[in-house]
Amino acid sequence: MVPPLLRLIATQPQLLLNHAEAYAELLSEELGQATGRWKQRTVLFSVALVCIAISAMLAGVALMLWATTPIADIHSLWALLLAPMLPLAIAVCCLIAARSSANTSSFGNVRQQIKNDMAMLREVGTP
């Protein structure tokens, strides 16, 4: 007695080739999406790092200005505080965006398709 799957492969090999081609397309699409997410996260982390460095430099400059300027001559103390906060806020936003994009699972469609195929093979293999 020949198993149904083996009989199908022997009589219609084109079906197996079509299925393998569909898997290749699905893998290619998933790989492109994963690469895009990786590039996006890299850019977001890079922007965050640069913004943190800028914020640290501006905080140092603000601290030096505050330390060397007499209190009576400081007219806009808020500007000394705000200058390092803006790039720091951008860095935090970039880090949050990078972390949220990390939560998406890669190759989820491929995993689901493999599960579906395995379930179908179990159904065909049971008498």
Automatic annotation (TrEMBL):
InterPro entries for the chain? Phage_holin_3_6
State the UniProt keywords alphabetically.
Membrane, Transmembrane, Transmembrane helix
Q: Which domain of life is it from?
A: Bacteria
Q: Where are the transmembrane segments?
A: 43-66, 78-98
State the name under which the record lists this protein. Answer: Cytochrome bd-type quinol oxidase subunit 2
- Source organism (scientific name): Rhodoferax ferrireducens
At the highest ranks, the source species' classification is: Bacteria, Pseudomonadati, Pseudomonadota, Betaproteobacteria, Burkholderiales
